[in-house]
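Record 1 of the preview.
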Amino acid sequence: MPVTSRRTDVAVIGLGAVGAAILYQLARRGVRVLGLDRFSPPHTQGSSHGETRITREGVGEGEAYRPLVRESHRIWRDLEARTGEKLLTACGLVLIAPADGASLAHGRSDFVGRSAAAARAGGIAHEVIDAAELARRFPHFAGLRGGEQAYLEPGGGYVAPERCIAAQLRLAAAHGAEIRTDAPVRALRPEAAGVRVETDAGAVTADRVVVAAGAWLGPLLGPPFDALLTVNRQVLHWFPVDPGAPFPARAPAFIWIAPSPGVDFLYGFPPLPGEARVKLGTEQFVRPSRAEEARAADPAEAEAFYASHVAGRLAGVAPGAVASAACLYTVTPDRDFLIDDHPESDRILAVSACSGHGFKHSAGLGAALAERLVTGRSPVDLAPFGLARFR
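->
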């Protein structure tokens, strides 16, 4: 489809989790904005699909994230009121890890302790319990060894990524945003009058460009981003739940960090309403990938995942995946976000809310960046995510 506008205030490249949020927030502020995506979002080619994404406000990754996730929760509730869509399900969140605090998650040790500290600092309702109490409340966690502790956040749970993206794109269009899909961006060329955005569907000049293209960000922008961002393919699986499985009526989403770092990491969700299957996944950071790598999951991957991560650990979850899907993590060396102007042009803003913990912050980040683009100031301190930390 041809790009109809030849001039715009802001062009947003990539309309996944963060791009859709920025587009919506700019449009509702009256900005003339163009959104571009190489596919037709929400889609299954990037990082923002698979029915559910965990959300939690006690963010053990660091204090800089807390205002983003809190604002995201507020925005999702507002979007629910505006659209009638169910976006955020507060089924609770359980984070399980060895009580000695030695295991790692997202590059941090003592993730239970860090999450509880963040919750205390933010006034977020939570508990920390031992393995015996965890087993009593949630008997489907069958693989507990007795040396675990757990962080429980009743207000945590999951969001629906495809519905969040679609709702923000619909509202952005209603506020006047121009959206062009199936329009890959081939080059960005800073000029005196702005930035020329070259696509397969034509070119447009924008005063500012936001690149939120996920796994395609590094190849599009080049140095230094291409050297700082690594793409890792991840595979999600849906397994059947046996009749009579010991899932409580209100089972939480969970993250289970076992003693072997990067080996026994397991996360999952309760059965969705009306379904008899559970979505489970792990994370791997040792096999780099490319944005264009095939998404198809081999059945052998599901068999190996079940044997390594599920068998003996989750009671009532049967082998034989009923579905699998691949997604992409774009990862920085320190597992934090990367948000900064391009070193060669302050008209180009790179946004990689990445490393496997980005979706829960996306709506709040979209609002913060829209405010920065409109007023020159962000209501949230984004300096911790800048390029300077890598120099």
